[in-house]
Design a protein that fits this description.
56% helix, ten-stranded mixed sheet, single chain, two-stranded parallel ribbon, 14 strands, Helicase, Ruva Protein, domain 3, Rossmann fold, alpha/beta
């Protein structure tokens, strides 16, 4: 699963726990580990120069000041390198004891900048780091280096938050947030893989928030004039809106959980499903405190992410800060199969079902798949006749475009020429294909190859396209598709 694990270290309690976690994962997956430390000698040198004016008078002689600068520069660089070496040597020793490959990484500079630069373009597929470092303050929940690395990183990041007591029992639940996005289903697949390796149980949670919709709707009502309120009958609309939001959102998020359950079952796993209402990150945190999981797995972003947005979603960031357990932020993306998604999330009106049943049997599956694909792309949860019309129109356009592209390619190859096959029926050969065949000097071998190609074409039921439009096969498919 993970083959190259990157571990920033600084000898803090959370960093040492991150090393132990990385060793545990590395042993399970046969991964190579890299330990990295940024020692920031340049920062210390800059600070020393800024404070030189506070030195006693006897040090302000030019020759003496130059000497002191050289001494300080040498001590800082050598000293910090020695300290870094000791951190990495300790990790290297632990890797040797576990039979794992180890790579030391040491850099001078701004901590998060150098770490992100080191990760960029590398083949590390997981970063394991402590939530807090050597400079932690009493009320800190997430250190600045960890926060900035997580924000800027494009890899999976396992953030170590818990410092377990040796007397604690082993936790057995991997907790995963599901919101219907490909990122959340990617997190689910990651959680299932981990559960299989470490004999853990997976619990999936989905949270829907009807209260925001209530607040927005009430805000609209409160700013309307009395006359406008009567025209739009907002009291009745408000009741209908509440009924729809209550039942509709719950059903949508329950369908996400049902889909997650199906995906788990396809992989031979079971999971617990939990549906709650409220603010997503808050309810997930409350439930995590209740069940005390081994790990929380979430996507870096979710269903409300805009295409132009990058980085960490707000719910993921809130969970990272508040979670009482380790958090794995995943970059995995998983799009469930069309039929599985549709079964859980999409319904058909009786009229729409009847139209699809009228399609010829040999294209009915293709028609149904095209309609479902369009419904999912457009965000429909109920398919009506107009959705079928739109899907058939799109299908016809794509078929026509494909035929024209094929015809254009054949025209570039010199067009088609019909020739009788070895046993009588005719097939069409492109001029370029015939030219390639004629390059064979041995007439016997040329006839053998020609016969084999023709036999293969007939077995695959290839048909010559009409250069003026669609092929006979594609025209038949389009005709069948339009019949609903």
């Amino acid at each position: 699963m993970y083959k190259n694990i990157y571990v920033p270290v600084d000898n803090s309690a959370h960093s040492n726990r991150a090393i132990a976690c990385a060793l545990f994962l590395g042993k399970a997956f046969g991964a190579k580990l890299a330990g990295s430390h940024v020692y920031a000698a340049g920062l210390h040198d800059s600070r020393f120069k800024q404070m030189e004016y506070t030195l006693p008078e006897e040090y302000l002689d030019e020759a003496e000041l130059e000497r002191q600068r050289d001494i300080h520069d040498s001590l800082i660089k050598k000293g910090l390198k020695l300290i870094s070496d000791s951190y990495l040597t300790n990790m290297a020793q632990q890797c040797r004891e576990q039979g794992l490959l180890f790579e030391p990484r040491m850099m001078d500079g701004k901590h998060h900048v150098e770490l992100l630069r080191d990760l960029e373009g590398s083949d590390y597929d997981l970063v394991v780091m402590g939530a807090l470092g050597i400079g932690r303050a009493r009320d800190s929940v997430l250190g600045s280096v960890c926060e900035r690395v997580v924000r800027g990183c494009d890899r999976d990041v396992w953030v170590v938050k818990r410092l377990p007591d040796d007397r604690e029992s082993e936790r057995d639940t991997i907790f995963v947030g599901i919101d219907g996005s490909p990122q959340s289903f990617g997190a689910l697949i990651t959680a299932l893989h981990l559960a299989q390796h470490f004999q853990k149980h997976v619990e999936a949670i989905a949270v829907y928030d009807p209260y925001l919709h209530y607040s927005v709707f009430e805000g609209i009502v409160n700013v309307l004039s009395e006359q406008a309120a009567k025209v739009f009958r907002f009291k009745e609309q408000n009741q209908l809106h509440e009924d729809i939001i209550d039942s509709g959102l719950a059903q949508i998020y329950q369908s996400h959980l049902n889909l997650a359950e199906t995906m788990a079952a396809e992989r031979g796993a079971t999971l617990t499903k939990t549906l709650l209402d409220g603010k997503a990150f808050q309810k997930i945190l409350d439930h995590a405190r209740k069940i005390d999981p081994w790990l929380l797995v979430v996507g870096r972003s979710g269903v409300h992410r805009h295409k132009a947005e990058e980085g960490l979603g707000s719910s993921a960031e809130n969970l990272l800060r508040g979670a009482p357990c380790d958090v794995l932020l995943t970059t995995a993306v998983e799009v469930p199969r069309l039929d599985v998604r549709a079964e859980e999330a999409i319904r058909w009106t009786s009229e729409a079902e009847e139209r699809v049943k009228r399609a010829p049997e040999h294209v009915r599956g293709m028609v149904r798949a095209a309609v479902l694909r369009l419904a999912i792309e457009k965000g429909y949860s109920v398919i009506i006749s107009t959705v079928i019309d739109d899907a058939m129109g799109l299908m016809a356009r794509r078929t026509n475009e494909a035929s024209m592209a094929q015809a254009g390619a054949l025209a570039l190859e010199g067009g088609l020429q019909d020739e009788p096959t070895y046993d009588g029926p005719q097939l069409s050969w492109a001029q370029e294909a015939k030219k390639a065949l004629r390059t064979m000097k041995d007439a016997y071998q040329r006839r053998r190859i020609k016969a084999r190609v023709e036999k293969g074409a007939r077995l695959r039921k290839l048909r010559p396209p009409d250069l003026g439009g669609q092929s006979r096969a594609s025209r038949g498919a389009a005709a069948g598709a339009e019949s609903p």
